[in-house]
């Protein structure tokens, strides 16, 4: 796609710059590689319970959001800072790092968890990288191709135990040793800043306009060797549910949670539904429908969106867009009563 000309600044939310939603302020808390400790889970649960709507909302970038907050987020900032969740205020909105969620627990060629720590330190050590758009996405893939397929701007993907390939907007490039992965990613991010113009993403640059998307492996779920993957409905966990995990976890870009070890006792927190939805009414004034209420009556892999922004839509989900009197299902109008009576595509 051509480099777009945008009249508005990047308004990607964080903790210091929240989004003003109908149900209150929305704060996005970055979790490098999706990793969060048991102690930090307790802090997030307390913030949701005391300051927000009582739940923590998982995002498609392995982060979490808190909704229904007061516009004055001073207490939230203090709590999150004390928990180590805001280590670099100047770089807060650009700490967007995906990492293979099962890395170091089961499968994969390389344990990328140490690389996430190194990447975060390297990005935050360079003042100019605070100028990256809030949508710019780094990824470290342990070789299974899971996060490399999530359309990161810069990605290192392992090809064996000693090296990987550098991907820019999905296009495979040079071979890079494990020890040089962080330096390579940071270097490409700095180069993007030099040439970006008004672009927010690497794929908006002319040289990457024709790069086809990668095939994404099926997201993991259920009890695996070495880990248990929980899939809460719409990626929402109450404060009480979050506290019940009682261990360090990984939030995935598929709105699920990886818990180390075999934990079938936690599967009650999972839903078998493959339907996703934006927050819809009444939380968002732009939405034309209570899409989550409608989506709960539907089966199949589909994403219900309340408006054309299609917030949080997975790339491989059928597009169900709210319009007056019904929904556009992959572009074809279906009255709401007909769609919900049918219950599937």
Automatic annotation (TrEMBL):
Domain Nitrite/Sulfite reductase ferredoxin-like stretches: 26-71
Taxonomic superkingdom: Bacteria
Protein name: Precorrin-3B synthase
Organism of provenance: Amycolatopsis acididurans
Protein transport found in the keyword field: no
Keyword Magnesium: no
Keywords: 4Fe-4S, Heme, Iron, Iron-sulfur, Metal-binding, Oxidoreductase
């Amino acid at each position: 796609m051509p480099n777009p000309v945008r009249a508005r600044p990047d308004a990607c939310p964080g903790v210091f710059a929240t989004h003003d939603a109908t149900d209150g302020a929305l704060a996005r808390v970055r979790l490098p590689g999706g990793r969060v400790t048991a102690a930090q889970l307790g802090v997030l649960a307390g913030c949701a319970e005391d300051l927000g709507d009582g739940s923590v909302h998982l995002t498609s970038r392995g982060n979490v959001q808190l909704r229904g907050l007061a516009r004055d987020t001073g207490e939230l900032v203090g709590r999150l800072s004390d928990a180590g969740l805001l280590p670099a205020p100047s770089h807060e909105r650009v700490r967007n790092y995906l990492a293979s969620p099962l890395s170091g627990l089961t499968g994969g060629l390389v344990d990328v968890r140490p690389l996430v720590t190194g990447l975060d330190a390297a990005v935050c050590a360079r003042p100019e990288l605070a100028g990256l758009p809030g949508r710019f996405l780094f990824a470290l893939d342990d070789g299974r191709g899971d996060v490399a397929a999530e359309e990161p701007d810069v990605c290192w993907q392992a090809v064996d135990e000693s090296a990987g390939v550098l991907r820019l907007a999905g296009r495979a490039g040079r071979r890079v040793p494990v020890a040089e992965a962080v330096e390579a990613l940071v270097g490409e991010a700095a180069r993007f800043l030099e040439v970006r113009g008004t672009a927010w993403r690497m794929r908006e640059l002319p040289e990457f306009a024709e790069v086809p998307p990668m095939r994404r492996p099926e997201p993991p779920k259920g009890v695996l060797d070495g880990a248990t993957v929980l899939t809460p409905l719409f990626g929402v966990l109450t404060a009480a549910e979050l506290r019940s995990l009682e261990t360090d976890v990984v939030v995935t870009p598929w709105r699920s949670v990886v818990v180390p070890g075999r934990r079938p006792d936690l599967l009650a927190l999972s839903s078998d539904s493959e339907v996703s939805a934006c927050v819809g009414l009444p939380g968002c004034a732009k939405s034309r429908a209570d899409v989550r209420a409608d989506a709960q009556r539907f089966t199949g892999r589909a994403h219900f969106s309340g408006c054309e922004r299609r917030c949080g839509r997975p790339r491989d989900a059928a597009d169900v867009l709210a319009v007056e009197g019904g929904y556009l299902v992959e572009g074809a109008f279906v009255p709401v009563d007909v769609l919900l009576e049918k219950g599937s595509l």
